[in-house]
Specification:
This protein is of the alpha+beta class and about 450 residues long. Helix content is about 55%, strand content about 15%. The strands form two sheets. Strands 7-6-5-8-9 form a five-stranded mixed β-sheet. Bound molecules: zinc ion (ZN).
């Protein structure tokens, strides 16, 4: 009964809204007149724009408030509401002021508050209907501020945010919200769904040409420190490896990103994560290329997760090893150095790793440094001989260098994680990596939605 009665609004809400907005426009115009039409003043475009920046949030926030007041008049005047836990009708306790800030500006809502004695549960049906955040800054602000924090450090992030949106948020707020949202950047949601991945595969497929799915893995070192309690001295920092992979599709004339995932973790966890992602990929319809440097951990897991994948030793890593030996043995940029590098790389291009190994074994090292590098290169080529066949890769349309993972690593890890002076607590570092991967994978919206759902009352 009470609920039904409360929902009847006598006046037409759109007409009333229109009136309220007109009032706000008048107030805004007054302010602009005060600022702009003073005598002797000839403001420039920048100065005029500044006047708008300074005043628009108050104006828009008030309009926003008026809109809610009319659209949700029924809920704002509600006297009785059923308890969401037990269904019992509860009488309004008191009017409760909710101060909130959206991207539009500040608004205040005077909405009824209910309390079920049986369940000891307080609730506001309006908060539920509008998905109002318990924080003052609403989810629209939280989403954008977290997106900003994923790109730049928290301190300069809050400055940048204000600079670009005329909306002030503290770096403390930015950090806390980031930590809370980052909690939801878990593998299952950061990686696109099976349907989404299948759709991306279909997009690059052209006629009878089967696209190549490239799985490129790599490690990058991130500066970490142990978590310290308040007033406690920070523990000693150390570098830990963020292990990650980037998976993409090579179409006939384009590259389609599938998924990136990087975490500070051990190789077993890396293997579990890769296997989870592999299970979402329709492997039967694709050719598969596996790319990596010589690290054993990455090959072990890539081969286990993509058993029919063609293994390709990253060309650039390989070439780097060869240059190192050449420099020590023949002297940098000497004629012999250049010739040896060229002939060695050509042999490797034609999959003649055994020939190169044979030659290295017969080489007379110039000194002990050269001897050590030669020994290492022999081991490296022996370990990876089955993965060296660059000419065949080229012909088959496979990539030979993990330029893909290098740039993804740079983008996801280095640009945000390796800022000078930044030492990451592992958990926060992983939230950062997860959130950045989500942005890159196009799943940030989903991560944020999950966070929001968990924040909103029953
Ligand atoms: Zn109840």
């Amino acid at each position: 009964m009470g609920v039904a009665a409360a929902c009847i609004v006598e006046e037409d809400p759109t007409g009333k809204f229109r009136h309220m907005i007109h009032d706000e426009v008048d107030k805004w115009v007054d302010q602009i007149i005060d600022d702009v039409f003073e005598e002797d003043k000839e403001p420039t475009v920048m100065e005029l724009s500044e006047v708008f920046s300074k005043t628009k949030h108050k104006f828009l926030g008030a309009c926003f408030q008026a809109l809610i007041e009319q659209k949700y008049a029924g809920l704002l005047e509600q006297e009785y509401a059923p308890c969401p836990e037990c269904g019992k009708m509860c009488k309004k306790r008191r009017g409760h002021l909710k101060q909130m800030v959206t991207m539009q500006g500040p608004s205040v809502l005077k909405r009824p508050w209910f309390y079920c004695v049986d369940c000891s549960y307080g609730f506001s049906p309006l908060d539920k209907a509008l998905e109002i955040s318990r924080k003052k800054y609403q989810f629209d602000v939280q989403k954008k501020s977290t997106r900003t924090a994923a790109e730049v450090p928290f301190s300069s992030g809050s400055e940048l945010f204000e600079e670009l949106t005329d909306q002030r948020v503290s770096d403390h707020f930015m950090h806390d919200t980031f930590e809370a949202v980052g909690e939801y950047a878990c593998l299952e949601d950061v990686i696109p769904s099976q349907e989404e991945i299948s759709a991306r595969c279909r997009e690059v497929k052209e006629g009878s040409w089967r696209p190549v799915l490239v799985v490129a893995s790599d490690g990058a070192h991130v500066p970490t420190r142990p978590k310290a309690k308040r007033n406690e001295k920070r523990g000693r920092g150390r570098w830990q490896e963020a292990k990650g992979f980037r998976i993409y599709l090579l179409g006939k004339d384009r590259i389609a990103h599938v998924a990136s995932w990087h975490q500070i973790q051990n190789d077993e966890q890396f293997g579990e994560d890769l296997s989870f992602v592999a299970s979402r990929i329709p492997q039967d319809d694709l050719r598969i290329g596996l790319l990596g440097d010589g690290a054993d951990w990455l090959w072990k897991h890539m081969v286990a997760c993509f058993p029919k994948g063609r293994q390709i030793l990253d060309y650039f890593h390989c070439a780097e090893h060869i240059h190192k030996v050449a420099k020590l043995q023949y002297g940098e940029k000497s004629q012999n150095c250049l010739e040896w590098v060229e002939s060695t790389i050509t042999r490797l291009f034609y999959a003649e790793a055994d020939n190169v190994i044979w030659g290295l074994q017969r080489m007379k090292p110039r000194d002990s440094l050269a001897k050590e590098e030669i020994r290492k290169l022999i081991g490296y080529l022996q370990n990876n001989r089955e993965r060296i066949h660059y000419r065949g890769d080229r012909i088959g349309g496979y990539p030979i260098g993990s330029g893909g993972i290098e740039s993804a690593n740079k983008f996801i890890c280095h640009t945000r994680m390796k800022r000078s002076g930044a030492w990451w607590v592992k958990e926060t570092g992983n939230k950062m990596l997860g959130t950045r991967c989500a942005i890159y994978n196009g799943t940030y919206g989903k991560i944020f939605e999950n966070y929001k759902k968990a924040q909103t009352p029953l």
